[in-house]
Design brief:
By secondary structure, the chain is mainly alpha-helical. The protein is built from seven helices and no strands. The protein starts with a helix and ends with a helix.
Length: about 170
Amino acid sequence: MNYFFITLFYSGLSPKAPGTVGTLVSLPLGMLILIYLDAQTLFLATALISVIAIKSINKYEEKTAIHDDKRIVIDELAGMWFALSVAPAITIGIDELTILSNGFLIQSALSFALFRYFDIAKPSIIGRIDREVKGGIGVMGDDIIAGFAAGISSALIWQAYLQIQVLL
């Protein structure tokens, strides 16, 4: 069960780009929580999953002596879901999903792209956490910070777009 969890339903076993595959699995799941519940529920669920993941990753690393195994992608879920809980962070009905003016799909896609960028490039504190912090906190920490950075960036870009629309 632990391996099923930390590999996010075995999506981390993908031979190519397991982190991207894990993020792609996480995106629609997070969007469904936003559609049927709300951003606060997504945020709290992500915090709970993150705590459980840290403990599970610590056990896995103790057992295998492999730090930040590429097959571990539960950290991608945490980062993506934190990004979604920040932006779009709106509750919409399923019937409003295709209305681009509410920003839900655009911000979700932007959050995905920005999260992957921050997770791969690892700028600033994200890279420092990745390099220096060991165990489950290190594996999860860089993705959590990358998720918040992606969510905030996505929200700022969307708000800038809306302000430009008003000016035109």
